[in-house]
């Protein structure tokens, strides 16, 4: 089985190509990235290509592939949603249609918890039947939801092509911490304080709860979706549900109550003057995300996460303090530059 992975040099991609290369059912893994990584993974070949329409001949790249795993995504610049739309939406459509033209047998697409509509008022976990209209106020959720609608029509047009949609919660691993710090917090995060006992307090935003998953566990679910004859969406999460108090506990810090409105106002002000790259609409979306039930993944993929959500976040925090990374352009720790200077992933 030959598998091509787009976005193979990022947080999810580096874990996915590694587990695929170790699977005996997979004979050939091609990692596709916009910039060639220096990282060597046995059994993985690398190819530079851009998914933006007109930049690369993806159909030629996919010819002969049994499965394409689509992970490529651009989080920035948040001040220029046209740029992210071109890569994330038009680029993804380019991937989908190139799969059809190349005769690929299966497409495994990285959707997200962010594709879901706001959760039920009673807070119960939702399965894959929950509506996927996203939150209209954030580019990330709009783009993920739009691709869900596109895939609805794509599946009807190509019934012989097996389509899988993976909808994970927030993915963390130690090696991706530097990248995620750059993407969401920017250059002013106090990196050296991100360790137990050094950070005195964390703001506890009212209503904030989230689910997390170690990236390596998500990669195992992707591997199962590649080698098993499954179709449709799969939620991916680990227990327990987390909040600010749980994160503060890992850092031995206190929590300071902060109304969601005040948090949004502060984030909006910082975003407008380019102090942080995360836009306030993303906070609005996170506060409305549903909790996910991963029962289908357990039953049909035979998947169970090996790390708890708490352990995944702990790995991320350790990576932040240590400046951990990998030798790929998105994950290189050198881009943090003594935990201050940043480059775009």
Which residue ranges are poorly predicted, with pLDDT under 50 across at least 5 consecutive positions? Answer: 335-345
Q: In sequence order, what are the helices and strands, one letter per element?
A: EHEEHEHEHEEHEEHEEHEHHHHH
Alpha-carbon distance between the termini? 30 Å
Helix fraction?
Answer: 25-40%
Strand order of the largest sheet: 3-2-1-4-5-6-10
Question: Helix- and strand-based class?
Answer: alpha/beta
The count of β-strands is 12
CATH class of the largest domain: Alpha Beta
Q: What is the fold named in CATH at topology level of the largest domain?
A: Rossmann fold
How many helices? The count is: 12
Q: What is the averaged pLDDT score?
A: 92
Largest sheet report: 7 strands, parallel
What do these coordinates show?
This protein has 345 residues and is of the alpha/beta class. It folds into two domains: 193 residues, NAD(P)-binding Rossmann-like Domain (Rossmann fold, 3-Layer(aba) Sandwich); 122 residues, no CATH class. Helix content is 38%, strand content 17%. The chain contains twelve helices and twelve strands. A seven-stranded parallel beta sheet has the order 3-2-1-4-5-6-10, with helices on both faces. A three-stranded mixed beta sheet has the order 7-9-11. A two-stranded parallel ribbon has the order 8-12. The longest helix has 22 residues. It is globular. The relative contact order is 0.17.
């Amino acid at each position: 089985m030959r598998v091509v992975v787009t976005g193979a040099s990022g947080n999810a991609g580096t874990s996915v190509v590694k587990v695929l290369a170790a699977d005996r059912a997979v004979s050939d893994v091609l990692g596709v990235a916009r910039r060639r990584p220096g990282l060597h993974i046995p059994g993985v070949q690398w190819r530079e290509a851009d998914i933006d329409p007109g930049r690369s001949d993806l159909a030629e790249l996919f010819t002969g592939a049994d499965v394409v795993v689509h992970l490529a995504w651009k989080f920035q610049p948040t001040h220029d949603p046209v740029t992210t739309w071109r890569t994330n939406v038009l680029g993804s459509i380019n991937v989908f249609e190139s799969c059809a033209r190349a005769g690929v047998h299966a497409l495994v697409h990285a959707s997200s918890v962010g594709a879901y509509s706001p959760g039920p008022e009673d807070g119960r976990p939702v399965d894959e039947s929950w509506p996927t209209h996203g939150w209209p106020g954030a580019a990330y959720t709009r783009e993920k939801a739009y691709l869900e609608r596109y895939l609805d029509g794509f599946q009807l047009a190509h019934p012989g092509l097996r389509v899988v949609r993976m909808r994970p919660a927030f993915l963390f691993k130690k090696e991706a911490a530097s990248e995620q710090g750059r993407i969401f917090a920017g250059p002013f995060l106090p990196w050296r304080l991100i360790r137990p006992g050094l950070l005195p307090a964390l703001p506890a935003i009212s209503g904030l709860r989230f689910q997390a998953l170690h990236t390596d566990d998500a990669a195992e679910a992707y591997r199962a979706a590649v080698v098993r004859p499954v179709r449709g969406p799969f939620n991916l999460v680990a227990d327990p549900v987390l909040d600010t108090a749980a994160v503060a506990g890992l850092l031995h810090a206190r929590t300071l109550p902060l109304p969601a409105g005040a948090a949004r106002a502060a984030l909006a002000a910082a975003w407008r003057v380019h102090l942080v790259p995360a836009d306030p609409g993303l906070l609005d979306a996170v506060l409305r995300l549903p909790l996910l039930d991963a029962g289908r993944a357990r039953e049909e993929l035979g998947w169970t996460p090996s790390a708890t959500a708490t352990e995944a976040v702990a790995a991320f925090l350790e990576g932040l303090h240590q400046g951990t990374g990998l030798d790929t352009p998105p994950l290189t720790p050198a881009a943090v530059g003594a935990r201050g200077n940043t480059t775009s992933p």
